[in-house]
Structure formats: structure tokens, C-alpha cells
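Take the subject:
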Amino acid sequence: MKTFIAFLFAAISLAASAQSYPTKPVKILVPAQPGGGLDLIGRTMADQLSKAFDQSFIVENSAGGGGAIASQATARAAPDGYTLMVAYVGTHGTNPAVRKLPYDAIKDFTPIAMVGGTPNLVVISPAVPANDLKSFIDYAKANPTKLNYGTGGIGLLNHLALEQFRAAAQLPDAVYAHYRGIGPAIQDKRGNQIQVLMPGLAAALPHIRAGKLKPLAITGLKRHPLVPDLPTFEELGYKGFDGVQWYGIAGPAKLPADVTRTLNTAINKAIQSPALQQRLASEAITVMPMTPEQFGQFIQADIARWSALAKARNIHLDD
């Protein structure tokens, strides 16, 4: 009888704890400097959750190590729901595929909620004599020495996605210029120092609209409303090009299930608001609501996808 009473008391205490969460400010680590997509997601979610719970959710920018510093800090935090992070394709997708990390992207975290993602697209210099993907592939095969390819850094999504395309199209070896960020790569592309790039839509869109970049195809399973005339790789016959620059919220491993569900419910409710969807859409981010379990499966599949590609294309970063 005493054992039953003790068990009942513990269960009631746990339920009360979950119902009262959060009782103090919650920290959301953003693995980047202020500004940009990661910071936007972090501050947007902090604002939405602060309103939902009538409690402060505070953004702390923690750049460095390709997201490893913020990831380590989150993994080492107490699993009580008061330290979260913006997990994204870099920290929980491409980095685990190409480098040794001081954290395990699967075992050290609790997936809470996916927020959304933005696709990548192949863009070429207007000077390249091609107006669609097929004519570009034909030109690239016939003139391999006339093309320089650019990335925002070795092993980043825009690099791996470009390698995925080159492998699928069976393009010849290429000369690569790896920049420190997609911004400098786009600037050199505008100057025709590089001719081929595969940035995220948000970064490329202003330059496409200015006529400085020529888009050929976009990732994802359906056309994007911001570039409705641009075909997807899928409809052009290239399967498996559904990778995106995604953003979500995660916490340390062993986060209580009730806290995880509470946060997931609040985030999913927020991102399904038409006003927030419109705001994110203006940044080329499409919401992707998921359960914690679905988000965890998504992360595992993304790591597996990019790990297989990195191994096949011999892409790795040696620390």
C-alpha cells in the first residue's frame, strides 16, 4: 500500500510539474551571430513561446565551431526544458556527415519540433549559355574547363546539394572555390568569377530578381510559390532532391516527455498561424509541423542521406 501511495504521489508531482512548465525563463541557444535565418527562427520562436506560456523565452546567440559550441552547451544542460536550441541542418544534418563532432546529434538531444525549411536551387551566371537544366548539363559536359563552382564552405548543405546534383547528372570533375559563407560566394558569382552555385532560396532570391543569377532547378517535391516558374529536380527526372535548409527546436537528451509534448504543441500551434506562415514565407521558409517522433526520424534520415553522399564523394573535414 505504501509503495502504491508513493508511486501515486510521484505521478501526481510529475503531472503538476509538467502542467506548470515553464515556471522561470527559458533559454534558446542560437548557433549563429545575430541576423540571418537561424537568428530569425530563434527570435520568432522565443516570441511565440513567450506569448503562449506568459513566460520569458530568451535568445542567446552562441556562434562558433559550425554550431558545435551551442550544440555542446545544449547537450550538457540539465534535461529540464530550460535550455533549448535552434537545431538545424548544419548541427543535426550535414556536420555529422562530414566531420567528427564533440556531440552525438542523435543520442545527445531530444527532438522537440520542426519549424520549417527553405529549398536550395542551382543558379548559374547569366554569361553561361544555358537557359534550362538540360542545356546547362550539356554545356558543362562539353566545356568542363570553362566552369568554376562555388560553395559557402566545405561540407555545408549548399556544397553537398551541389555534389548531389553533379553526381546525378554525371558531370565531369570541377574546380571549386569554397568561401566563408554564401554571401561572398554570391558576390563573386555576380562578378562571374564563379559560374555555378547552389544557395538557399532566401539568399539567392534578391539576386535572381535583379537578373544577376539565372535559376535552373530547385529542391523539394513541389514548386515554390516565390519562384513558381522554376521546375523542381523531381519533375525534371532527378529523384531524391527533397533536402532543405531546415530549422527546428531541440533540447538535451532525456527531456521529460510531458515537457517535450507541451513545447511541441505550442510550436505547432504557432507555426500553423496564417500570420506567422506569411511572415516566414517572406523569408522563403515553409513551415513543416511534425511530432517529436517525426522530427527525430527526419533528423536520422537527413544524417544518413548526407553521410552516404559525403562518403561516396569523399567529402570530409579533418579537424
